[in-house]
Structures are given as C-alpha cells and as structure tokens.
Hints:
The chain is α+β, with helices and mostly antiparallel strands. The chain is built from twelve helices and 15 strands. A hairpin with a 2-residue loop joins β2 (42-47) and β3.
Amino acid sequence: MQTKILALAAIAALICSCTSGEQRFTVRGNVTDSLAFQPGSLVYLIGEDGPIDSCAVSQKGTFTFKGEIDKTRQLVAMLRFPGRDRYDDRFLASFVPDAEQITIDLDYPATVTGSPLTDAINDFVEKVSDIYYEHETNIGSLTMGGSYEAADSIIRARTAKINDYSRETFLAHTDDALGLQAFMNMCSDMDAAGLEELLPQAAEFIRDDEDVQRIMKQKRAASATAPGARFIDVTGTRADGSPVALSEFAGKGQYVLVDFWASWCGPCMQAISKLRDYKELYSSKGLRIVGVNVWESDPAKGLACAKEKEMDWDIIFTSDHSATENYGVEGIPTLILIAPDGTIAERFLGEEGLQNALAKLFE
C-alpha cells in the first residue's frame, strides 16, 4: 500500500513539474553598455499597467526575469539609468512571453530571440511598413505635380492592401497578441460595420481591451453621425459666458459648417483663413459657420485664441468631451456640414474635399 502511495505521489510531482515548466518563461538578458553599470541603473520588466519587476545588471552584464507564459500580451524589458530621458528609445525591447526560454540583448539596437510571436509581430510590422512606403515617392511626385486623383488612387489601393493583410493576419491570430495588433491596425481605416463583423471572432482579451473598446465607441458614434443622420446637439458657452447650443443654428433652413478645433492644433489654425474665405464667399448664399472649441487643457486658451485669430463666426466653447464623443471625432480639425433640414450632409477629417463640396452647393 505504501509503495502505491509513493508511486502516485511521484507521478503527481512529475505532472506538477511538467505543468509548471510549460507555464513559466525565463528571460535571460545581457547589456554591456557602461550606462548599465552606473549606480542606480536597473533593468525593468514592464507590462501594460506599469513595472512588474526589476533587477540590477550583474558584473557580467546579465539579468534574468521569470513569469507566466502568456501569448496574449506584450512586455517590455528596459534599462533605466540616472538621467534617462523619457523619449530615449535605446536599451528597450518589446516581446511576447510565449516560450520557456527567451533571450534579450538590450545593447542598441535591442534584439529578442526565442519568441515565435515576437518574431511574427516584427515581421507583420515590417511588411506593413514596406507596403506603406512602396509607392511613397510616386505619391509625392504626383501630388507635387497636381495629379491629386492619381495620387489618391494609389493611396486607396495601398490602404486596401494593408487592410487585407491585417485582416488575414488577424483571422489567423484571433487569440494572441499579434491578433490584437492586427485588429488595431485596421481600426484607422475601417468603419464600425467592418470592425463589428470581425470583432466577434476575436478572443475575449481582444474584445475587452481598453483601446479596442475606446476605438469601437468612437467608430460607432461616427457611424451614428454619418451623412444622412440627424445632427446631435452641442452645448457650451459663448465668449461672454452665456449658454449656447448648436440647435440654435442647425436645422433652421440654412447650411451650417461645424468646425471642431483647439488652440494647440496646428492644422486647425491653418484652416482659419480658409474658413474666413468660405464665410465671405458663401454666407450670403446660405452658409453659416459655427466653431466648436474642444480638448483645451485650459478653457482660457480657447477664448484667447479665438480673439487673437479674429474668428468672426459663432463659437461654442465646451468644457467636456461630450461633443467629440457624440460625433465620434478621432482627430481635429473635423468639419461637419449640416443640411438645412438638420441632417448631416458631409463630414471631413481635415480640409480635404471640403472646398469642392461647398463649391458644388453654392456655385
């Protein structure tokens, strides 16, 4: 009886040992730069929520981290030394802890070996970059020569190719970190409907990712305020502090061009002269311009900017993010053209296409 118990215990120990080995990773790293040996220098293991572990570099320039294997997340090994600038991109490496033995060389440029998913992510990023820059010179030449339609055609084809490759990659990796990266890569150019079709196929960790949820919320709001939908009211204050709402202007029998802007936004400032031209050209023909000041760290900056730039049109100064959240604004300037009946006629990220749209309406 005792022999049988000992045998069972040995089998149980063996199973536990094997299971433990399969679930743990070990990072063996090295860094030989003199910065690693300064007093106070440490190598950190960093996750999405911040540092997980840290250790000093040995006299031989080595360091070690251990943890649970997890193919759903990316970690960063980084050397921090006294005086390191936050934007210093040396001595750091991103990796997926998907294998038992991973080797990291933090000497610049850092390298990771032994992690299949890390290799796959690097290959994905490199191919996307290759597709993006494949015709960049040609696009620039066409744009400089005024052949905008030809340049736009190449850009659209490039975007489609990147999205197709990202979709293919995502569908092959719906349960790991590469799948999350491929999905995020599609988010910039796909609308809510396209993303909604793919998202149910993703593992729970992708669906629950904070960035994915934030982007999907923005995409759904943009879809709900696409051309043909009724405008959503925006409330705030005038320069004198009195309350004002977009509904005071929109849906009142004239076209309203809504400009979401901020004082710190360079393209927003560049658009002011064009908006002034549109006001001069088309206000007598039924166009009204309404600015919506958003995303200011200090509301006084928006007020001062409007005065300094002599924005001589109605402006709604907002104090929260409800306006941009309701319209799914992903960047500024976003310009939304509202038809006389209160439905959204067009929306633009930046000025591209706006001039032609207004010319068709009023000339």
